[in-house]
Amino acid sequence: MGESELIGALDARVKRREERRAFFGQALGAAALGGAMLAAGRAGAQTATPTPTPSPTATSTTPILGPSDYLNFALNLEYLEANFYAFATTGAAIVSTLQGGVVTAGVQGAATGGRAVNFTDPVVAQYAREIAADELAHVTFLRSSIGALTVAQPAIDLSPAGAFTTAARAAGLVGGSATFDPYSSDENFLLASFLFEDVGVTAYKSTTALLTSTLREAAQGILATEAYHAAMIRGTLYRKGIQTPSLGLIEAAQKISDARDTLDGSVTENLTLGYAPDDDQGITPTTNAAGETVSNIVPLNSNGLAYSRTSDRVLNILYLNRAAVTSGGFFPAGVNGAIKTSAAAT
């Protein structure tokens, strides 16, 4: 059985299970109601007043999420990353054949505003090309796995004057009428990549826990890849920041990290699952127990575990909004699929 068939089977199983629950719930409810009416009839047999029939309880309209919904949420993130790296390395968006979806799965949009980076550091250029190929492979794999339930690529804003500058202003990297152009230099490209990569790792860490069997194994493979990407970007920023302090890269990464923490709000700390009020870290060096300076390439909690973010808090960052909204920031019309609302961050 292929991935697409497996997802369809799992979705169908979830729906059948919920239908059975609803059926038995209604049947049990009817039986209980019938018993109550019978008892009331016996108790009130000497009176002429009938027992009123209770009003039915409203049925919840909360959608039941299946494996394809979680994978489609991940696919939206991959559309964003794949297009950003495609623009940076080739000057064009991903191919149109990887953008479409089923009619009911959201409006297809274009990724706009990007352009090629004139890399001056050959190592950064090589990293960018490697990540671009990996992200394109993720889009291709997820679309193939989800199959007939695949959502279309939503509209994506990758313009310097749009979402990137909004994010940079929120972080205090630019002010006034200045813009942040992620395509103007190796360093700006790295900072823009840092904005995406850390969020992708926390998103996949949370999402993989909601999947089962083969699907979980596949998602964990993407999680590992995204973690490698994040380490590449964080390590390169750190190296450049230490070698050339005047670039201010370590300080800039810290500001981006602080802005993400502000956007996604505060949650109750869970050291085992990786949730925390401060679930983001820059690359500012720290000291160990011996007082020695150590780098902070891998952001971990006190148990040595990477952080997690729920999908709604991931959207707080990508929509660049602390409120519960369905669009904004890098997704001006919102993401496509059942998971599309950010959290009311506290």
TrEMBL record:
Pfam families: Ferritin_2
UniProt protein name: Ferritin-like domain-containing protein
Superkingdom of the organism of origin: Bacteria
InterPro entries listed in its UniProt record: Ferritin-like_SF, Pigment-catalase-like
Organism: Sphingomonas palmae
Segments for region (Disordered): 43-63
